[in-house]
Amino acid sequence: MRRTAFAAFAGALVIGGAPAAQAASSHAPGDPWERFNRAAYAVEGALDRVLLHPAAVLFRKISPGVAGQGVHNALVNLSEPGAFFNDMLQLRFRRAGNTAGRFVTNSTIGFLGLFDVASHLGMVHRDNEFGVTLGRYGVHSGPYLYLPLVGPTTVRDLIGTGVDAALNPLHWVNYANRPGISTGVAVATGLDLKVTTEPQLNALLSDAADPYATLRSVYLQNKEGEVRGDTAPIDNLPTFDEPTGPAAPAPATAGATPVGDDPQPAAPPPN
After folding, report:
1. CA–CA separation, 190 and 195 (whole Å)
2. Residue 168: its pLDDT value, please?
3. 197: domain range?
4. Residue 180 located in a structural domain
5. Which H or E run includes 230?
6. Which of 34, 177, 179, 197 could form a disulfide with 27 if both were Cys (CB 3.0 to 4.6 A apart)?
7. CA separation (Å) from 236 to 60, 197, 208, 266, 270?
């Protein structure tokens, strides 16, 4: 749920166009397509000014307070099966049990995820993605990418996005008006992402001499931290499925286990 359906189209565009935009050897390590990425970053900025930010403001106005939180909770709940799948692949069985408990609790007592009952019972949400699973098994991230309507990613994480999208419960259930509802969920997901992360991104980038390079650096550090098993993002770079309560402090990662449950799972934040 963290990425939108635009990822497939954007990925095809990168495969076809990125080599032509490959920059000189002076570019930062890990970002051989920097010229293309900076152009995409500029396009995203233009889209944000004329479309994305106004749409997010409208979304916030029509879903204020409890209603907006309910939408966010439901979208997070739809991401739990994907997180459970990746927890299991990574042999992180304690996290998998917590994730399964959250999904069952919030889908039943929480009225299809509109209410995050599980957090009040001590089951804190932890995002997980197939790109992280690949990284835990030693797959290199590949070049950094910035794609309009997708944001910062890497080749590995973009591939993982397709797997994560297939794990959405709405992908497997037959229901009336499925195309329209799927489109609506994708739009709501993007707007919710915008609303919940915009203040943090503004704080991160407002004083940066080079916002593109700052975002790239923090994103790559966070992804590396997720692969190592950190319990909280480095520098608190926002992700779609953040815990609804205060983030737990990140543990030391020098002895992190590449695959399997983390040695010291984080305690749930206080209510």
Report:
1. 9
2. 84
3. 6-236
4. yes
5. none
6. 34
7. 23, 11, 16, 16, 18
